[in-house]
Design goal:
Blueprint: E1 2-7, E2 11-17, E3 22-26, H1 29-42, E4 46-50, H2 57-65, E5 70-73, H3 75-84, H4 92-106, H5 116-144, H6 148-176, H7 180-190, H8 197-206, H9 215-222, E6 230-231, E7 234-235, H10 245-261, H11 263-274, H12 279-300
Parallel strand pairs: 1-4, 4-5
Antiparallel strand pairs: 1-2, 2-3, 6-7
Helix pairs in contact: 1-2, 5-6, 5-8, 7-8, 8-10, 10-11, 10-12, 11-12
Length: 311
């Protein structure tokens, strides 16, 4: 038995496969509690909900706490599935039916949700990025402002944003080290040359699977695994695509820093470059290698201590 639940702001639509049972409940704390009790009684193999920017988290956490296997899936994947089965219409009820069918046929793997502390850190990481983007925009406006009055207003806002950024970063550091496990993982990551506080915060907040997955699934999850493009005699270029863009962007910056400070990455990059690989290919390979190293370190709880530069 599989369930699909469409999450909206006001209500939750549920569909059960293969029985076809359907019902709707209010999206409130009381509604989630009642729904969880009913789902537990059904004992489904899995429940599938779409990631909706965090709106699905209270429901998914309540179900997982009750022992229900929950898979939070990418909406794009579900849309592709809808097109594949010829479902073009879209309503909340139809979406619940589609999710139940997706759960039954695709059988996505349920994964544990990040802890409350990790989820809070992820929100702070996102907020930090938002403040930095606003700060960059205001700094550009300061350069373009012609009048003294306009420059004064922009400068005032820049000062406020800088103070806000400092507060967010302090709160983020506190959230990441709120538990002994988080503090230990942060210390492990910070021991790697090229990994600073920003990259550490991003990895811990946005990649809670670090240290729990194999290197290949983790590389695919982040989006640094080259994807084949072959058909018949065609041998297209392998490209990276998808994954968690924010994690990948910070890994890229860590590699750039690591090429100066990290002998392992520096040696690996130089070997690839000497073999004639393009610079972007070398950098992507270094990102993949760094992620593999970090995954093993967090898994084993060991700090950076290479005996010799790896090739």
């Amino acid at each position: 038995m599989n369930l699909g639940i469409d999450v909206a702001k006001a209500h939750l639509d549920i569909c059960v496969r293969p029985s076809g049972e359907e019902w709707r409940t209010e999206h409130t704390a009381a509604g989630i509690t009642a729904l969880t009790a009913r789902v537990v009684a059904l004992q489904p193999a899995r429940v599938v909900v779409e990631a909706t920017g965090g709106l699905e988290r209270p429901l998914a956490r309540a179900l997982q706490t009750a022992g229900v296997a929950v898979a939070v899936v990418n909406p794009r994947q579900v849309r592709h599935f809808a097109r594949a089965v010829g479902q073009l219409a879209k309503t909340d009820r139809l979406d619940a039916q589609l999710l139940a069918r997706f759960a039954e046929q695709v059988q996505p793997e349920p994964r544990a949700l990040p802890s409350v502390e990790t989820a809070a850190a992820a929100e702070l990481t996102a907020r930090r990025q938002q403040v930095r983007e606003m700060l960059t925009a205001e700094q550009q406006r300061l350069k373009q402002a012609a009048s003294a009055a306009a420059r004064a207003w922009v400068a005032k806002h820049i000062a406020w944003l800088e103070a806000e950024l400092a507060e967010v970063e302090a709160a983020l550091e506190k959230a990441l080290t709120a538990t002994p496990e988080g503090a230990q993982q942060a210390a492990v990551l910070r021991s790697v040359p090229g990994i600073g506080p920003v990259v550490t915060a991003t990895l811990l907040a946005d990649l809670p699977e670090l240290g729990t997955l194999g290197r290949k699934p983790l590389a695919a999850l982040v989006g640094v695994a080259p994807l084949a493009c072959e058909s018949g005699r065609l041998r297209g270029r392998r490209l990276i695509w998808g994954g968690r863009g924010r994690v990948r962007a910070h890994l890229y910056m860590a590699v750039l820093a690591g090429l100066r400070a990290n002998p392992v990455l520096k040696t690996f990059y130089q070997r690839l470059h000497a073999a004639g690989k393009p610079a972007k290919v070398c950098l992507t390979a270094c990102m993949h290698k760094l992620l593999t190293i970090l995954n093993a370190m967090v898994r084993d709880g060991r700090h950076w201590a290479p005996k010799t530069p790896e090739a």
